[in-house]
Design a protein that fits this description.
Layout lengths: L8 E8 L7 H18 L6 E10 L8 E9 L7 H13 L5 E15 L2 E16 L3 E8 L15 H22 L4 E2 L8 E2 L2 E2 L2 H4 L6 H15 L17 E8 L2 E9 L5 E5 L5 H19 L4 H10 L7 E2 L5 E3 L2 H10 L1
Antiparallel strand pairs: 1-6, 1-7, 2-3, 2-4, 4-5, 5-6, 8-9, 10-11, 10-13, 10-14, 11-12
Helix pairs in contact: 1-2, 1-3, 5-6, 6-7
């Protein structure tokens, strides 16, 4: 199973409610919470999530009237969550007299299983509800896991993994449809898979749209995200190598965030975020990339730089836990591990 930064698939439900007097912000939050509850019941989601709430005046061309990000939510305390209540109240006060769009988004960690063992990904699902004042709403569910596919996003058959996970997804989609009183519109086919009303088509029928779609698209996208907020610099080791590599595991409070690596035979080094660890993996990686730049500025070779980094104090967000670097047969193998675990 591989976790992706882009959705593997999505489903959308259209709902119309004759509740013109009901608060659109409250309706958006309650609907998203009800979908979250179904994911919890089917052991697909964790009882914690990050919430985002916004209000926009229509047509959607101006900056948002309200935008509240990073709401750390617990399902058990959702009704008494002060920060969420304050955000809903702020959204209600900001509602314009004309048409308005209220959007509430939940980023949900979730679980998948393999050989009976359960694993966690920090961005397994996103639930978004877009609510208009007249009662119309769109509910969208996105998944960022390929655990439901017969072939993973690196073109490897995974029938057992699918058998363990896809029935729970199908049951959840059915329950969400019953809750909302409508059938879902599956998202378009993408580079990973083709969604259906009950899950996904069998990738083996026609073959994947791209060979190794995860490696082709995900790896460059992760690199762009890692470096997007760093200042430009010429003090860089090469990001790629065809040689074997050695790596240190980067952790925070026992959770693996990524892998700091260097080539065994040329001047390449970098950091591979563990995608399933979510945003924390990327934030930690930026600090290590800055330290790699410092090593390059000092003229250290890639392997010497790797050892030098291991002797430095931990960063604000993570630390190297190994004393000796681990060998990997290739950078591709390390990238693969960063997506699968």
């Amino acid at each position: 199973m591989i976790t992706s930064e882009d959705p593997v698939g999505d489903w959308t439900w259209e709902i119309t409610q004759n509740k013109k007097t009901e608060s659109p912000p409250l309706r958006a939050v309650e609907t998203a919470a009800a979908v979250w509850s179904i994911l919890l019941q089917h052991e697909l989601a964790a009882p914690t999530a990050n919430g985002f709430l916004s209000v926009r005046s229509m047509p959607n061309t101006a900056p948002p009237l309200v935008e509240v990000n990073g709401l750390a939510l617990k399902f058990a305390a959702l009704k008494s969550e002060t920060a969420l209540s304050q955000a809903v109240a702020e959204a209600e006060r900001a509602l314009p007299q004309d048409r308005a769009l209220v959007s509430f988004r939940l980023q949900c960690p979730g679980f998948w299983s393999a050989s009976g063992a359960k694993f966690r990904a920090e961005k397994m699902f996103i639930v978004q509800v877009d609510a208009w004042a007249r009662g119309f709403a769109l509910v969208t569910l996105e998944t960022y896991s390929d655990a439901w596919l017969t072939v993973d996003t690196r073109d490897r058959e995974q029938l057992q993994t699918r058998a363990e996970n896809s029935p729970r997804l199908a049951a959840a989609l059915k329950a969400i449809s019953a809750l909302l009183g409508s059938t879902p519109t599956p998202g378009d086919s993408n580079r990973y898979a083709t969604p259906t009303e009950t899950g996904f088509e069998d990738v083996r029928d026609e073959g994947p749209a791209y060979d190794d779609s995860w490696g082709t698209f995900e790896i460059p996208a992760r690199s762009r995200r890692l470096r997007s907020s760093l200042p430009p610099s010429e003090e860089e080791y090469s990001e790629t190598t065809d040689h074997p590599v050695r790596y240190f595991t980067v952790q925070h409070e026992g959770r693996v965030l990524g892998y700091l690596w260097a080539s065994a035979d040329d001047e390449a080094a970098g950091y591979e975020p563990r995608t399933a660890a979510g945003d924390s993996a990327f934030e930690a990686g930026k600090e290590w990339l800055l330290r790699l730049r410092e090593a390059h500025l000092q003229g250290l070779t890639a392997l010497v730089a790797l050892s030098w980094l291991a002797r430095l104090p931990r960063t604000a967000l993570s630390e190297i836990v190994d004393t000796v670097p681990t060998p990997a047969s290739s950078l591709d193998a390390l990238e693969d591990m960063s997506g699968r675990t």
